Amino acid sequence: MQAMDPNGPTAPPSNAPSVGSSYFSKHFSTDALSIDVKNAVLQANLAPVSFKRITVHTRDQVTARGEGTGQPNQATYTVTIEMEDGGHGLVRQTQSAQSRDGNTIVRFELSYRGYFPFLTQSVPANADSLPPVIEARKVMHFDTHTDGHINFTYLYGPSGKPTFADPGQVICDSGKSYSASELNPAIQGQALELNCQNVDTNGMTTSKIKLAYLENYGVALMVHTQNPESSLDSTIVDFTAE
Question: Domain of life, per the record (predicted)?
Answer without folding.
Answer: Bacteria
